[in-house]
Amino acid sequence: MNDYLQLQGVRKMFGETRVLDHVDLSIREGELVTLLGPSGCGKSTLLRCIAGLAELDGGRILLENKDLAKQPPRSRQVGMVFQSYALFPNLTVSENVEYGMKMRGIARPARRSRCEELLALVDLEEKHDVYPQSLSGGQQQRVALARSLAVQPKVLLLDEPLSALDAKIRKNLRAEIREIQKRLRMTTLFVTHDQEEALILSDRICIMNQGRIVQDGSPEALYTAPRTEFVARFMGSYN
Ligand code: ADP
Ligand code: MG
To answer: Which ligand is nearest to the CA of 40?
Structure first.
């Protein structure tokens, strides 16, 4: 199978600090890859580089063999969900979901029907006309997920989408995200610092530390054959 999204030697500096240090990463179409690492290791920065919210200081990012740097962020076909919900508070649920489609000039009837499909997908058909603040955290994240899928991205980036939620809601939404991802065969890069989440969700896990990917493999391989003590501790292979 071909690599769908490829990061080649990606580097990012903030001042003198090397936040991404030669990151290589390939994701196949339809795969869910988790980037797992401690706070501050560069996970969000990596997602922001893919989404076009931050510029690279070196290396390349290719989507279907095309260099993303040559495409403006809005036409990148990359969807992103953040840790905090980041919905527009003054727009209703359906206006939030339709926002990106509207920006791209998609006509109202098409927006409407796509919005209905997506709200059904995330189980929020009843909530079209309410405002975000009347929803629970889990429901807001589902709206954020629907909104990011609305523009039919080729890649979905999820930046710790569950970490602000209570344990029970987190587990339910975790399972739902995986189900939706599989159903849509959505190529997904999921970021977390929670090893249990990574073990349950992922086709493949990349362990990140200090701006580098230190090991990449199946959940089983990382758990049973960590190459370093850092990976072993992070995977909970021993405590
Ligand atoms: P993670 O998401 O893994 O917690 P981040 O990508 O947010 O890590 O941050 C990686 C490092 O880059 C941290 O040391 C952070 O302080 C630094 N950093 C992130 N964004 C900026 C910025 N805009 N300016 C300066 N330093 C930043
Ligand atoms: Mg982060």
So the answer is: 1
